[in-house]
Amino acid sequence: MRSVENALGMEIPKNAQYIRNMIMGAHAVHDHIVHFYHLCALDWVDIVSALAADPKATAKLGQSLSPWKRNSYEEIKGAQQRLQTLVDSGQLGIYGSGYWGHPAMKLKPEVNLLAATHYLQALEYQRKINNVVAILGSKTPHIQNVAVGGVSNAINLDSPDTLNMEKLYHIKTLIDEANDFVKQVALVDVAAVGAFYAEWTGYGKGVTNYLSAPDMPMDTKGTEFALPGGYIPDGDIGKFTPIKSFNDPFFEDNVKESIKHSWYDGEWNRHPYKGETVPNYTDWQDDGKYSWVKSPTFQDKPAQVGPLANVLCMFAAGHKPTQTYATQVLDTVSSLVGSKVGVDALHSTIGRIAARVIRCAVLNDTLEGQWAALVNNVASGDITTFNPPSFPKGEVQGFGYHEAPRGILSHWIVIDNGRIKNYQAVVPSTWNAGPRNANDDLGPYEAALLGNPVAEPEKPLEILRTIHSFDPCLACAIHMVDKNNNEIIRVRAL
C-alpha cells in the first residue's frame, strides 16, 4: 500500500495511520513472543531436563528474578506435570525433534523448568495480543482492512458495528496484559539465558552493516515517526545516518539486488524499480549460482536487518525507551555474570535474540501511545479513515517500507496508466539469507556462521542457534509457483 501511496503522492488520515500502527505493533509483539519462546528458546532450554527440577526451588528462583505473579509453586508444578504427561505418553509432540541432552545445553534443571513454564504461559499472551490485530484488521498475517489511502475501519463511538469505545477499551486491556508479560517475564528470561550462555556473545557476529526503517508515522505525510530508523556502517553507531521520511532518497537511491549467485536469468545488479524475476535453475555451483534468494545491498554492501538492526539504529538515534530497555537487559546480564556487558555484546547470536525482546518491550510501549493518539484524535471530532486514490495518466513509480518483525520490508512499484508495470519486494529474509552478492561479499547468514562451534556434527544445534536468531522465513524470501498448477513439492511431517 505504501508503495502505491508514495507513487501517487498521497496523504493518509491520522486515524488510518494510528490504526495501521496498532495493527503492525500488535502483530510484531505477537511475532516476537512466539519467536523467543516457541521457535527459538528450545535451542537453549532442555525441556526434558526440566522434569528433574525441584518446583519449589524453581518458584524461589523465579520470584527472586521478577515480581511476576505467576511464578508460583502451583503454576510451576502444574507445568512440570504437563510435561511429565507428555513424556510418559511416549509422544513428545511439539517437543519431539529437540536435541535434548546435547552437550551445548547448559541450563540447570530449575532454570529449564522456569523457562518451560513461561513457554506455556506465552501461549496465552501471544493469543491476547493477537486479538488486537483481529479486532482492528480481521486476521493475520494477511490483514483485511488496509486499502490504498487508509483503512476500511469505520469509526462510530455509538455503533456496535464499527470501531467504538467498547472495542477500543478492550484493545487497551489486551495491550496492558501483554505489557505485564513482556516486561516482567520476557525481558528477564532473555537476560537470564544471555547470562548462562554469555560465551555466545562471541559467536554469530557476521555482517555489521545494519539497516532499519523508521515506522509508526504520526502525521499524514510520513515525515514524523514514533520509532526512528536508518543505517549503521561497520557496526559503528557513531556513524548512524537516519532515514527521515517515506520519500527519503537516502533509502530509495541506495538499494540494489544482485542475482550473480541466484537461480535467475542473467548476472545483473539492479535497482528494484528495474528488477526482474526470471527463474533459471542450474543446480548447485560452488563458484556460480547456488540459491533461489536474491542478494540485496545498501550502498553496494550487504546489510543485516531485523530486531538487532532496529534496536541498534534506535539506540544510536537517541530513542529513550530503546536505550532504557537495552540498558536494563545488559545490566541484568552483567549482574548475573559478575562483569560489565556492554552494547557491543549485542553484535552476536545471543545479542540478536536479546534485541528481539528489547524491541518487543519498546513496541508494547508504542502501542499504548498509538492507542492514546487514536482515542484523542477521535475525541476531537475526526473520524476520517480513508482518502480515495486517483491514478494519473502516464508512468509513475514509488516505494514503501515497513519495519516488519524480521526487519525492513520494502516494496517497489512502477505504474503505467493505472496498471502495474513492475512490482518488486525486497523482504527481510532476502536481506539476511541472500547468497554472495555481485562483489562476492557474504550475506548475513553465511557470515554469521563462520567460527561457530559445533560439538556434534550430526546434531548441529549451534548452527540452528545462529540461524534461528535471525528468525528465518524463506517462505517470505521465495515464492515458488507453477503456472500450470502442478505440485512443486510435498512436505510430510513424521
Write a structural description.
- The protein is an alpha+beta fold.
- It has one domain: Cytochrome-c3 Hydrogenase, chain B (Orthogonal Bundle), CATH 1.10.645.10.
- 43% of the residues lie in helices and 11% in strands.
- The chain has 14 helices and 13 strands.
- It has helices at 2-8, 14-40, 55-65, 73-88, 109-137, 165-196, 249-252, 307-316, 320-337, 349-379, 428-433, 444-449, 461-469, 474-477, and strands at 146-147, 150-151, 210-212, 215-217, 225-227, 230-232, 241-242, 255-258, 269-270, 295-298, 395-404, 407-416, 419-426.
- The strands form five sheets. A three-stranded antiparallel β-sheet has the order 3-6-7, with helices on one face.
- The longest helix has 32 residues, at 165-196.
- The protein is globular, with a radius of gyration of 23 Å.
- The chain starts with a helix and ends in a 17-residue tail after the last helix.
Q: Could you say which structural class the secondary elements and strand pairing correspond to?
A: alpha+beta
How many DSSP helices? 14
CATH superfamily, by name, is Cytochrome-c3 Hydrogenase, chain B
* Average pLDDT, all residues: 94
The major pleated sheet works out as: 3 strands, antiparallel
Strand order of the main beta sheet, please? 3-6-7
Q: Determine the oligomeric state from the structure.
A: single chain
CATH fold category name: Cytochrome-c3 Hydrogenase, chain B
Distance between the termini: 40 Å
Q: What is the level-2 CATH architecture name?
A: Orthogonal Bundle
What overall form do the CA principal axes indicate?
globular
Q: Strand fraction band?
A: 5-15%
Specify Rg, calculated over alpha carbons. 23 Å
